Amino acid sequence: MNEPMLKKMEAVPINSAEFFARSKTRLNFDVPPGLVDPNIVPRTGDAGNDRMLEIVAQEQPVRPAAVLIPVVDHREPTVLLTQRSPHLSSHAGQISFPGGKIDATDESPLDAALREAEEEVGLKREFIEPIGYLDLYGTAFGFRILPTVARVKPGFKLTINEGEVVDAFEVPLAFLMNPENHQVHSKEFRGMERSYYAMPFAERYIWGATAGILRVLYERIYLA
């Protein structure tokens, strides 16, 4: 792992009310065709990542997935995250959003995200106000992840499904949306250099797809 770099971009400070208002204005529930079409490759703005996703799309089947970005509407908002169980076949032990693959029985990516949030941590739908889909996010494992941004009312009680996750915790939205906390690392993929984000928080190491999706959220909502 290389030494972290900070990618500087100018953000506009906003409060929680403005965050939700901007999210409602800038996001919608149109499902991007690239969620299932291997010929439409999600773009990241990083040449190495874009080339990696092109290669992955040629070699692996598309794996549609959905996650929930649960923004808890405290006075100081937080984002609810999970730590995946260590025995899982992919991304074991990593910090994630509630979510998973889209099943044939799911009516939509939103329905999949809500179902997974309830299955993994017991977050009931009556506490969740979905706002809209964020940009499609591709991974090196062939996943096409469609995140749903949602406002979550405080007062919920969680029930952890330890077969899927071992912990759920909240991180201040202000920390995650502060670009000074967005470390950029690089690694090799078949001789090419590609970058990825990391956002270490206390003893939690938030990186990979989760950090990348949070960065997309920052760029969509916080940048003017």
Automatic annotation (TrEMBL):
Q: Which CDD domains match?
A: NUDIX_CoAse_Nudt7
A GO MF label: coenzyme A diphosphatase activity
The UniProt entry, under InterPro entries, shows: CoAse, NUDIX_hydrolase-like_dom_sf, NUDIX_hydrolase_dom
Q: Where is the Nudix hydrolase domain?
A: 61-197
**UniProt keywords, alphabetically:** Hydrolase, Magnesium, Manganese, Metal-binding
**A Pfam family the protein falls into:** NUDIX
Q: Which cofactor does it need?
A: Mn(2+); Mg(2+)
The UniProt transmembrane annotation reads none
Q: List the NCBIfam families hit by this protein, alphabetically.
A: PRK10707.1 (NF007980)
| The protein's name in its UniProt record | NUDIX hydrolase
Query: Which species does the entry assign this protein to?
Result: Bradyrhizobium jicamae
